[in-house]
């Protein structure tokens, strides 16, 4: 489930016209006995109008 959510987040960021120069710094998903933990870290530039 978290993988699907994070994929949708990636698709949204990459498709947004207001966002440029996206760099993915970290993508980690840990599966513990109790939960899944996802850590994503991006840098991105926003376009000015």
Describe it:
By secondary structure, the protein is α+β, with helices and mostly antiparallel strands. The protein is 29% helix and 49% strand. It has 1 helix and 2 strands; from the N terminus they run αββ. It has a two-stranded antiparallel ribbon.
What attributes characterize this protein structure?
single chain; 49 residues; alpha+beta
* Radius of gyration, in angstroms, nearest whole number: 13 Å
- Total E-strand runs: 2
Low-confidence stretches: none
Mean pLDDT: 88
Number of helices: 1
Order of helices and strands: HEE
Structural class: alpha+beta
Helix content: 25-40%
Shape annotation:
elongated
Number of domains: 1
Taken as a percent bin, the fraction of beta residues is over 45%
First and last CA, distance = 36 Å
- Main sheet characteristics: 2 strands, antiparallel
- Assembly type of the chains comes to single chain
Strand line-up of the largest beta sheet: 1-2
Which helices and strands occur, and which strands form pairs?
Layout: H1 2-15, E1 19-31, E2 36-46
Antiparallel strand pairs: 1-2
């Amino acid at each position: 489930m978290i993988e699907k959510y994070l994929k949708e987040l990636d698709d949204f960021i990459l498709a947004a016209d207001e966002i440029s120069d996206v760099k993915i710094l970290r993508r980690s998903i840990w599966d513990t006995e109790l939960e899944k933990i996802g850590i994503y870290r991006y840098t991105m530039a926003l376009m000015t109008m």
